[in-house]
From TrEMBL:
<dbReference type="GO" id="GO:0016887">
    <property type="term" value="F:ATP hydrolysis activity"/>
</dbReference>
<comment type="subunit">
    <text>Homodimer.</text>
</comment>
<feature type="domain" description="MIP18 family-like">
    <location>
        <begin position="4"/>
        <end position="75"/>
    </location>
</feature>
<dbReference type="InterPro" id="IPR044304">
    <property type="entry name" value="NUBPL-like"/>
</dbReference>
<feature type="binding site">
    <location>
        <begin position="112"/>
        <end position="119"/>
    </location>
    <ligand>
        <name>ATP</name>
    </ligand>
</feature>
<comment type="similarity">
    <text>In the N-terminal section; belongs to the MIP18 family.</text>
</comment>
<comment type="similarity">
    <text>In the C-terminal section; belongs to the Mrp/NBP35 ATP-binding proteins family.</text>
</comment>
<keyword id="KW-0408">Iron</keyword>
<dbReference type="InterPro" id="IPR019591">
    <property type="entry name" value="Mrp/NBP35_ATP-bd"/>
</dbReference>
<dbReference type="Pfam" id="PF10609">
    <property type="entry name" value="ParA"/>
</dbReference>
<dbReference type="InterPro" id="IPR034904">
    <property type="entry name" value="FSCA_dom_sf"/>
</dbReference>
<dbReference type="GO" id="GO:0016226">
    <property type="term" value="P:iron-sulfur cluster assembly"/>
</dbReference>
<dbReference type="InterPro" id="IPR027417">
    <property type="entry name" value="P-loop_NTPase"/>
</dbReference>
<keyword id="KW-0547">Nucleotide-binding</keyword>
<dbReference type="InterPro" id="IPR033756">
    <property type="entry name" value="YlxH/NBP35"/>
</dbReference>
<dbReference type="Pfam" id="PF01883">
    <property type="entry name" value="FeS_assembly_P"/>
</dbReference>
<keyword id="KW-0378">Hydrolase</keyword>
């Protein structure tokens, strides 16, 4: 009859395909039951609906079946609680930075892949928060495509230096800092890995933000060096994930959530951008067209057990307002203003909840 020790020993060699670490080290083996030659292993996935769950179950089954004396293996899948995830992933503390000490909530806006409208959402979220009376700053950490200055109407601006700190230009009542301000005009900066880390770490120390309720950080897309560094050097209250409704975006979002889980960063939830298009049909009535499919973001949030923060329509006014440097959320009574207002309110409420819980790496207020 196989023993629990033997089972755990073989499971030590089974790795989470995305995190690259042993299921045992990750605390994913919730239970092992042995009944004669039958073994039942309960695996707690880091997030529900993990697209790797079939592979993980298959790898566990294969590894345990190879133990001499085992005839039958059953794998039951369950999901970790947020507390369990924090125990494993939330060990890393972000060192405190003087330049950030008067900022109450630092919120990152991330996306699994490029071009889903992350910057558009980040800018309009910052504006919607400012419209609600909060003191807001926005940091464009998208080193590869810093578009925040354009969207905020600050192209060509430069920060000035006071007491060795960069003073961010202001527009629409929001303090703005961007790698775009620091790059030579018209020239792309080519960043290599270690430089990315150094540049972002220096930026975290060298901006005079003053007192802010919210600092919104527009992250570079994906799960590469740059978003990882931001989550390591800024004491984030949490992260907002932007996606589009297409199925193809799902695995990118899961990868992104896994990365933030591993870093101990809380997830505010998912914003679905380009969720629908409103048109007036020949009948004179309003029609809602789900251009990229329907309910993808909501289902994804449900499957991954993270909050769904709202849908942003595909609206030419949103891209036009971006090009003009006048974010759509500046008019809180407009349709887009209301959409971003509701999302901002949900995030502000959650930020207070997270603050009470004592966010990873942050001192309690
Ligand atoms: N809901 C929307 N309706 C219409 N146009 C949109 C919408 N969201 C974004 N866009 C447009 O799509 C383009 C890409 O948007 P944006 O730059 O915000 O994406 P991103 O995810 O930040 O991209 P990157 O990965 O390059 O940083 C822009 O031209 C923007 O104006």
């Amino acid at each position: 009859m196989p023993t629990r020790e033997e089972v755990m020993e073989v499971l030590k060699k089974v790795k989470d395909p995305e995190l690259g670490r042993s299921l045992v080290d990750l605390g994913m083996i919730r239970d092992v039951k042995i009944d004669g030659d039958k073994v039942k292993v309960t695996v707690a996935l880091t997030i529900a609906g993990c697209p790797m769950k079939g592979r993980i179950a298959g790898d566990v089954k294969k590894a345990v079946s190879e133990i001499p004396g085992v005839k039958e293996v059953e794998v039951e899948l369950t999901t970790m609680t947020p507390e369990e995830r924090e125990k494993i992933f939330g060990k890393k503390k972000v060192p405190e930075k003087k330049a950030l000490k008067d900022i109450r909530h630092i919120i990152a806006v991330a996306s699994g892949k490029g071009g889903v409208g992350k910057t558009t959402v980040a800018v309009n979220l910052a504006v919607a928060l400012a419209k609600r009376g909060y003191k807001v700053g926005i940091l464009d950490a998208d080193i590869y495509g810093p578009n925040v200055p354009l969207l905020m109407g600050l192209e060509g601006e430069r920060p000035f230096t006071r007491d060795n700190l960069l003073v961010p230009p202001e527009r629409w009542g929001i303090k703005v800092m961007s790698f775009g301000f620091l790059a030579p005009e018209g020239q792309p900066i080519i960043w290599r890995g270690p430089l990315v880390h150094r540049a972002l770490s220096e930026l975290a120390e060298s901006v005079d933000w003053g007192v802010l309720d919210f600092l919104v950080i527009d992250l570079p897309p994906g799960t590469g060096d740059a978003p990882l560094t931001v989550a390591q050097v800024f004491p984030l209250r949490g992260v907002v994930i932007v996606t589009t409704p297409q199925k193809v975006a799902i695995s990118d979002v899961v990868r992104s959530i896994n990365m933030f889980n591993e870093l101990g960063t809380r997830i505010f939830g998912i914003v679905e951008n380009m969720a629908y298009l409103k048109t007036i049909g020949p009948d004179g009535k309003e029609h809602i067209i789900p251009v990229f499919g329907e309910g993808g973001g909501e289902k994804l949030a449900r499957d991954l057990r993270v909050p769904f923060l709202g849908k942003v329509p595909l609206d030419p006014n949103l891209s036009k307002s971006g090009e003009l440097g006048k974010p759509a959320a500046l008019d809180p009574e407009s349709e887009l203003g209301k959409v971003f207002g509701e999302i901002a309110e949900k995030i502000a409420t959650k930020a207070l909840e997270f603050e009470k819980m004592g966010s990873c790496g942050l001192k309690k207020a």
